[in-house]
């Protein structure tokens, strides 16, 4: 697809100047254990329908990015099978009877290589799309994401995925401190908690876009057309 060098997208707090050659779609943690009925997220008592509504808009955005030949990167939250990269504080946080690394409904919970840790089939990465395995909430912590983005000449990120207030927000903040302009489409990010969804988005765009911009994916599609 032949796109102009800069495309203006309606966003808050003001229009976002998307540069197709420099903008990657970064899809955060769309993993089976967080999104699928019967997974770890639901086992903890969460309503996975709050996250599943993001699947279709993410599929449409992913298709648009692929059709335009723009960079797509996926992340997965999880740990080595021997759990040597799992801080003890993270393992015991929440005082749950079932912790990260324990057997769960879809294999060992948040362990790399297990079924529940993998990305949902609806958004499965192509072999050409980097997948960042991250041990933390932020996608930059203890990963090679920043190096990959720099090598690709990426300066802008459209950040989608789950959950809005945890891994999406942490990643947007990390990216902002590293000089990336982040745009978050509200319908492509999800939280188990509606109030956190609302506040998580407000925090990004507040104070003149202190961490970035917020839009709806319809505005991105309209601009790409
Ligand atoms: C959480 C995430 N919520 N991907 N992970 O633990 O947001």
């Amino acid at each position: 697809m032949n796109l102009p060098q800069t495309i203006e997208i309606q966003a808050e707090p003001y229009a976002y100047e998307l540069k197709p050659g420099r903008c990657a779609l970064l899809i955060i943690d769309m993993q089976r254990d967080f999104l699928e009925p019967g997974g770890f997220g639901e086992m903890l008592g969460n309503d996975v329908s709050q996250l599943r509504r993001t699947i279709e808009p993410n599929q449409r955005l992913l298709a648009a990015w692929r059709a335009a030949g723009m960079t797509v990167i996926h992340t997965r939250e999880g740990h080595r099978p021997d759990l040597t990269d799992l801080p003890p504080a993270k393992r015991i946080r929440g005082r749950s009877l079932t912790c990260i690394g324990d057997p769960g409904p879809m294999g060992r919970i948040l362990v790399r290589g297990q079924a529940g840790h993998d990305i949902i089939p609806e958004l499965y990465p192509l072999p050409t799309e980097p997948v960042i395995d991250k041990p933390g909430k932020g996608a930059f912590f203890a990963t090679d994401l920043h190096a990959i983005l720099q090598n690709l000449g990426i300066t802008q990120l459209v950040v989608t995925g789950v959950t809005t207030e945890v891994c999406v927000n942490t990643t947007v903040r990390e990216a902002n401190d590293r000089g990336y302009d982040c745009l978050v489409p509200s319908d492509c990010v999800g939280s188990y908690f509606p109030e956190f969804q609302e506040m998580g988005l407000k925090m990004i765009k507040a104070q003149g876009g202190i961490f970035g911009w917020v839009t709806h994916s319809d505005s991105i599609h309209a601009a790409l057309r």
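The chain is about 35% helix and 20% strand. The longest helix spans residues 194-209.
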